[in-house]
Specification:
The complex is a heterodimer. Chain A has three domains: 291 residues, no CATH class; 112 residues, no CATH class; 58 residues, Orthogonal Bundle (Arc Repressor Mutant, subunit A). Helix content of chain A is 40%, strand content 20%. The two termini of chain B are 28 Å apart. In chain B, strand 2 and strand 3 form a beta hairpin. The chains are: A alpha+beta, B mainly alpha. The interface between A and B is large, with 54 and 38 residues. Strand 10 of chain A pairs antiparallel with strand 3 of chain B. The structure holds zinc ion. The site of zinc ion has 8 residues of chain A, from loops. The site of zinc ion (ZN) has 8 residues of chain A, from loops.
Chain lengths: 481, 94
């Protein structure tokens, strides 16, 4: 029996505002406990919330980029629950009139055949709500400690349709969503700081079945890779249940990263009855169509459009364009390199292989790269005009990293300029053939591998400076006469 | 009247004794019965409102300002530890 997974994701993203959603407290991360609190976010009687205009604008911006319908009328509602992470005993959220409804996000991923495929994932809604405080339990026997610095920080909860069909699609969705949020400058999306959080709804059904199976909600997903792994685990767990035990029970489960398993969350969560009602402390809001149009006009070029432009204008492959645009700063770096009129393909290759490998090994982000775009372009230009070989360039780049010198300066300093002087190469080739009569004979007898060895020897003879293409040509000529 | 006194008590985290259940059921029935009078009005042509004031779009601009209330708030908290508020352990109910 084959099964089809059905996955929906709920993403909470912190909107990039200076102050909280309903009060003037700072949203700065990592401050002393409870420093960012005031009568409003501490829920003192008589205090009144007032909506942060910027938060609403950012929410509309994200909704527009996700092709959502922006509500003309919206209101806020109280979601009632007893838990000390919110001092008011309710969270201000949006129930039946969210800012954004019914959009989609285009994702890009590799299918099982390794082909790049595109798919539109429905967005059910994206609504504004306030974040809760943080409870600390560890090491405290007689209670819990509460820090309300996060309480009231603006969040946008983005809910997808159950359109995702594999852990890879879920991963691709998160990558695409994060890229859009960063391009919009709607939020930093730093998962370590809790600025982006994700819950997954997972169910499975027999292939061909149109009704959904019973779903489990998975929480405590701390990275995109964790989302992928937890969904994979959950799919297998549910298939095993159906095959061997009859049925799946609807429940909330927690992902345990160390054990690589999901566990039932033991709590009174089953009594979910939030008794939503309109927040009487906030007036309703009207969003004019002119406002929506104005926001639409300010949308920057988004990652999907940028990838398509890279493919069309620079001749990149779908995959290369996709990797470059995922991170805005990387794509910006790339385009700054191209300002130096170098080969777009060569520049893309050098950034994606050598430069990123170096940056990753040293844990440096692209915008802090000691090799600036103009420097990298300088290196690529030297390869392009045959001043140095790609092989030499691989040694030059780390030296540029270390010294901060330009490729040109380093190449001159170390005498690395590629030898294109045929006479010099002919001399070296003659020497190598003489020193390796067996290989020469092998090649003449039709063993093509022997040529590779001889080319290597000539490169060695010239300290890697000879143009490999020329070496190849000259050796062939010499051996065939 | 259609409500379950025990469910409401559970949501409000109240432990009711049997005699309290009976009394509260009667009280709630009376209250709901009073409000039910509204059902006799024809509201088919009335727009639902969520707010009593004829106001909309009240915003504040995104500017952060410290309130300096933390220490005062902590002073008034029933329990604290350092700069944290302290609460009883939230116990899971069976
Ligand atoms: Zn506050």
């Amino acid at each position: 029996m084959t099964y089809e997974p059905v996955i929906g994701l709920e993403v909470h993203v912190q909107l990039g505002t200076k102050s909280k959603l309903f009060c003037a407290c700072s949203t700065e991360f990592g401050l002393e406990p409870n420093l960012n609190t005031c009568p409003v976010c501490l829920g003192w009687p008589g205090s009144l919330p007032v909506l942060n205009e910027r938060a609403l604008q950012l929410a509309i911006k994200v909704g527009t980029a996700l092709h959502c319908e922006i509500s003309e009328r919206l209101k806020f509602d109280r979601k009632n629950y007893f838990y000390p992470d919110l001092p008011k005993a309710y969270q201000i959220s949006q129930y039946d009139q969210p800012v954004n409804k019914g959009g989609f996000l285009e994702i890009e991923f590799k299918n099982q055949k390794g082909e790049v495929v595109y798919k539109k994932i429905g967005i059910t809604r994206a609504h504004l709500e306030e974040d809760a405080g943080k409870l600390l339990h560890e090491g405290i026997k007689d209670g819990s400690l509460v820090d309300y610095n996060r309480a009231g920080v603006p969040l946008l909860e983005i809910v997808s349709e159950p359109d995702l069909r594999s852990p890879d699609e879920a991963y691709a969705y998160l990558i695409a969503l994060k890229a859009i949020l960063q391009y919009l400058e709607a939020g930093d999306c730093n998962m370590e700081k809790g600025e982006l959080r994700c819950d997954a709804n997972v169910s499975v059904r027999k292939s061909g079945e149109t009704k959904f199976g019973t779903k489990a909600e998975i929480k405590n997903l701390n990275s995109f890779r964790a989302v992928q792994k937890a969904i994979q685990y959950e799919i297998e767990r549910q298939i095993d249940l159906l095959e061997n035990h009859g049925r799946v029970v609807q429940e909330t489960r927690l992902w345990n990263e160390n054990k690589g398993q999901t566990f039932l969350m033991r709590s009174k969560e089953e009594a979910h009855d939030y008794r939503y009602f309109p927040e009487p402390d906030l007036v309703p809001f009207t969003i004019s169509r002119q406002t929506v149009e104005a926001v639409r006009k300010t949308l920057p070029e988004l990652p999907g459009e940028r990838a398509k432009r890279f493919i069309k204008n620079y001749g990149l492959s779908d995959y290369d364009a996709f990797v470059l645009v995922q991170e805005k700063k990387l794509a910006d770096y790339y385009e700054r390199c191209l300002a130096q009129k170098i080969s777009p393909k060569l520049a893309s290759n050098w950034i994606q292989s050598e430069l990123l490998a170096l940056l990753n090994s040293k844990k440096i982000s692209i915008d802090e790269s000691p090799v600036k775009p103009a420097d990298l372009a300088g290196l690529v230009a030297l390869i392009e005009n045959n001043t140095i070989s790609g092989k030499i360039a691989k040694d030059v780049l780390p030296a540029m990293f270390e010294t901060g010198k330009s490729a040109k300066a380093l190449v001159q300093e170390k005498g690395l300029i590629q030898v294109t002087d045929t006479k010099l190469i002919e001399e070296a080739a003659g020497k190598v053939i003489q020193a390796n009569p067996k290989s020469a004979a092998d090649f003449r007898a039709g063993k093509m591998q022997a040529l590779g060895f001889l080319v290597g020897q000539v490169m060695k003879e010239t300290q890697g400076k000879a143009n490999p293409k020329l070496v190849n040509e000259i050796l062939r000529k010499k051996l065939q006469t | 009247m259609e409500f379950e006194i025990l469910k409401i008590a559970e949501l409000a985290r109240l432990n009711l004794k049997p005699e309290e259940q009976e009394k509260l059921t009667k009280d709630l029935e009376a209250i709901l019965g009073y409000v039910k009078k509204l059902d006799s009005l024809d509201t088919s042509k009335v727009e639902p409102t969520s707010h009593v004031l004829d106001l909309e779009n009240v915003f504040r601009s995104d500017q952060a300002k410290p309130s300096h209330v933390r220490d005062k708030a902590l002073e008034h908290a029933p329990l604290r530890e350092g700069k944290f508020f302290k609460v009883p352990k939230v116990v899971e109910r069976e």
